[in-house]
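Just curious: can you write a single protein's sequence together with how it folds?
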Amino acid sequence: MQEAMFPETDGVLPAAVPAPVQSLAAALPSVVRLGTSSWTFPGWAGLVYAHRASAQALARDGLPAYGHHPLLRTVSLDRSFYWPLEAAEYAACAQQVPDDFRFVVKAPARICDAVLRDPGGRGARPNPLFLDAQTALGEFVRPAMEGLGEKLGALVFQISPLPAHWLSDREALFAGLDALLHALPPGLLCAVEVRDAAWLGADFAALLRARGATYCLGLHPRLPPIDEQLPMLRALWPGPLVCRWNLHRRHGAQGYESAKAGYEPFDRLVDPDPGTREVLARVAAATSAAGQPVYVTINNKAEGSAPCSVIALAEEIARQRAG
């Protein structure tokens, strides 16, 4: 039945989904949406796609096949971090996925990075648009709302690592974020992800709660392990769960390239992290039991293969709910 529902196309076709995975997807609450960061990996042939295709072909034609997988009900549009997308680009994505699919969208770096960076990633000079509310509305929020419509799931403002002088002036930093969140239209699911542990605390949680935003659980070596971030979520309870599982801790804060080298072609779990997965599943199960939405997107660099991580996490969520 699943294969017959896929529209006729000459492009990328979906992989056959094993019956146990279909049953697992059917058992998850509808408010739980799991997915990956992007969909453009040739090594996912047999997992997500029926045949191997180039990254370019998947970027162009792979999203319908990705959205056909019953466990992949969200995806993180990370490319919006590197340059703002137009409403038409968001709309083109929305047209390729089922009605119950939702997108997690990252705000552009021109809003979320305090410095303008050179081609090597080094901070070159201060960014005058950092946390600028009008730029956020005009270049990110409104185009995403217009283009994605009901398929907009969560907006993520990932604040890049900050220079020490920004972190030391907590009052000014919080004032800037508060003004940004205050300017956003009501009713949106907005999550703030940080890359500096200095953010974490009761005052940060209070700011988010006051503005109707939530904390994006960022699983990244720059931050404390998942257990040590849970007080942020408890301070915002009851509320949604937005999580981006980015990078295995063994690679360190700058370890994306080493993870990529060790994990390609991203077709299996190389470094399983059952401890993180168990805690994350427990939080997801509790959040969904309270009727709150759950968005978890996983990078290949978390364990080696994002689709395999999604399946393993779904299995653990099901086990937690059954227990």
The chain has 15 helices and ten strands.
